[in-house]
Write a structure and sequence with these properties.
11 helices, globular, eight-stranded mixed beta sheet, alpha/beta, 317 residues
């Protein structure tokens, strides 16, 4: 059984423009699954719906349609107590630790808060657990008395990770956890996340626009464009087996990837189309040099191959 199952997930936000109401289609029909102990990377341009999907995955937002199941239970249908129980094993790490950590609290209090909230031990037991968590993420227990502003950006993100680990989660959604860090610190945090995953056997939904980070950490990669998943493939074959023109364009932009197989690559100039008014048919076709008439008429389905590779393109084969 999958740890996290996302089926037909939709999240639309009402908006007004020019005196007329419309819907922003942030997530528009996503189906994904994360297995126990797996790292699923989620990549795409800014504004494609990745972070919205992450918040939906942990129950911080409720879907317009579709469902999110964690350990077989649909989060939107859970009672308050059931959702509280699920969140012991389902955590999230945000992009900006400075914004997600209360500046008035000490580091020790921030790490201890989930343990206190769930009454996970006596005062002395919680104190010992906090010290262990800080050491686990590479912080000194003596730093427990400091406030977030007294730490570096990398240290603050380590506090966020320690806090997420406090209740022994099965799955952590990592929402751009290294994008605000310097390159050298980014590598340290990625190594920490990889080490923790191997030591503790957790699963991650790792959201990022950094293809190198995703390729390093993930087992599989899902590529998102304008609210939809357009390709899912194994991370080990990301460079050589990418078939969707959008995936190949992302790779070419950062790696100098030279495609084969006759599938054209387009530089990703400009911004994606307005999510409040997505184009008909394939949503990538206005930016795709290989688009044919059918691409503007028919929306390709995400089709699975025997290898488990999924791609939504009329001409991917």
């Amino acid at each position: 059984m999958s740890l996290l199952e996302i089926t037909g997930l939709v999240k639309h936000y009402p908006a007004a423009a020019g005196g007329r109401s419309r819907l922003i289609r942030a997530v528009d029909g996503v189906t994904l699954a994360v297995a126990p102990g797996e790292v699923l990377g989620l990549v795409g341009e800014s504004g494609c719906g990745k972070s919205t999907l992450g918040r939906l995955a942990v129950g911080l937002e409720y879907p317009t349609a579709g469902c999110v199941r964690f350990l077989g239970k649909e989060l939107a249908a859970c009672s308050r107590n059931e959702l509280r129980a699920a969140r012991r094993q389902l955590q999230i790490i945000f992009q900006d630790p400075a914004a997600s950590l209360d500046p008035r609290w000490t580091v020790g209090s921030l790490v201890a808060e989930p343990l206190v909230n769930y009454r996970a031990g006596s005062g002395e037991e919680i104190k010992c657990r906090v010290e262990h968590l800080m050491e686990l993420v590479g912080l000194e227990p003596a730093q427990a008395g400091r406030h977030p502003h007294q730490l570096s950006g990398g240290q603050r993100q380590r506090v966020s990770i320690a806090r997420a680990l406090a209740l022994h989660p099965r799955l952590i959604v990592c929402d751009e956890p290294v994008s605000s860090l310097d390159v050298s610190i980014r590598a340290q945090i990625l190594n920490l996340l990889r080490d923790l995953k191997e030591r503790l056997g957790m699963a991650y939904l790792f959201i990022s626009h950094d293809l190198a980070a995703v390729s390093y950490l993930a087992d599989r990669v899902a590529v998102m464009y304008l609210g939809r998943i357009v390709e899912v493939l194994k991370a080990g074959s990301f460079l050589k087996d990418a078939r969707h023109p959008y995936t190949r364009a992302l790779l070419a932009a950062v790696t100098g990837f030279s495609p084969g197989g006759g599938i054209p690559v387009v530089p990703l100039a400009g911004e994606p189309p307005d999510p409040g008014s997505p184009p008909p048919g394939c949503r990538f076709h206005p930016r795709c040099p290989g688009a044919m008439n059918v691409c503007g008429r028919e929306d390709p389905t995400l089709t699975a191959e025997e290898s488990g590779h999924l791609v939504a393109c009329h001409f991917a084969g």
